[in-house]
Amino acid sequence: MPLMRCTNCQTVVDATTLDPTCEKCGSALTLVPSESQGLKRGAFDRNSIGAWRYRDLLPAVPDADIVTLGEGGTPLLAADRLGKEFGLNRLMLKDESRNPTGSFIDRGVTVLVSLARSRGVRGVECETTGNLGASLAAYCAKAGIETNIRIRRSIDREKLYQMIAFGAEIQTSRPGRKDEQSDRRTLRATAGNPYILEGEKTTGFELIQDLGWKTPDVVVVPVGTGGHLAMIWSALQDLVHSGLIESQSCRFLGAQSIAGPTSGGQSKQRSSQAELTFAELEESEPGLRRLADRAMHDSGGQAIENSAAETVKAIGILARTEGIFAEPAAASVISSLKSARDERIIDRDEDVVCVVTGAGLKDTKAISRIARTSTPTALRDDYDLARLQVGPTKLEVLVALAKGSTFGYDLWKELSGSRSITTASVYQHLGELEGLGLVRRSGVATVKGRERVLYRLTDRGSVFLEMAGRLGHRNR
Hints:
- This protein has helices spanning 41-46, 80-86, 106-118, 131-143, 157-165, 194-210, 227-241, 279-282, 286-298, 308-322, 328-342, 365-374, 383-387, 392-401, 408-415, 423-435, 459-471, and strands spanning 3-6, 12-14, 29-31, 76-78, 90-95, 123-128, 146-151, 169-172, 186-189, 218-222, 251-257, 302-306, 351-356, 406-407, 439-447, 450-457.
- By secondary structure, the protein is of the alpha/beta class.
- β1 (3-6) and β2 form a beta hairpin.
- α3 (106-118) packs parallel to α4 (131-143) and α6 crosses α7 (227-241).
């Protein structure tokens, strides 16, 4: 039976379930490394490519119960053009967007779902802002395990569409909601699950093998929950402990949202666009944050803060120079890299690896954000770009909002009088119009005990309607 240590109070306990938390303080647990002396590098070279190549360093799962979609085995790419832009001679990108559902978290979910199938788990529940739910839905679909996912209002719709496609049951999470009692064979999963964290270590194992069993000088990783950064650091300690590498002197830099909770590190004035937050940067588990802080401190690294505007710009820089389209949380490593160079935290000739954790198509609002920051701001100059994304229904929404601010539910009642449309579809159109900058949320009110969002037309939206009326909306 594996031993686990609390990330907060350091209590060591026996692990009897797949979803344990510390009984003393309720914090996340991590597995205590087991004895793995005698491992040889050649054994990993002979194993098949992917996360399960490192099964000797992972929790034991019977071969027949392994649930895999081909996660891991992601490329480590030389980034010469990006490096030249930032004045770095040896920059590399570990592209985790190539994982099956477009996120590094597939590496952890394959381990948890494999263990779940081996123990006869019938269902998995989770609450998520996106990537965790999409990954669980995919792997549970492969395993024949039911998935129930509670989503937050901040979820990116593209991740929601993934969950729906994989057959997950979706519910909306409400503030103050009390969890119902689950069947004893239902597993509750969080980003801090110790078995998910163990799988995330394979990013570190793989990176070091990619580099010929040597460590780079610097690794830049999004902080997020703190788990992935902490586990890559832990993976390097495991490799030293097992004798696969002699030592490690790699500094860890954590890319962190300026709008979220702060760790130690560089302080930066808030951007005027600080209201643009990104869901995957908002998830947090204090114990994992502490592990990430410890990893940065002990390695001689630090956290680097990013504003939303800097992160959006970084998405475009990465795509334009290296052909990788990353979601905002993943692209934050690029804006952190620039700050680290500007502040001389990284030297020109150091070996630097940025871990790009997720694909940009998981947040297509990023496309319109890039368009608004990389093209002329006058709507008349990019009207053709906007009109391609505004069909007849969206135009009706804009016309309705031109009459005054209103709630999404009231919009649905108005639109449903002339066409068959669901409330979910109305909110989808509102979200996409928000991404285009044509609509914004102007407030929240409680109506009959339910929280409702008030929407209004932006100045950009008003100009768009003016242009559409004068030129004729050619999408019709």
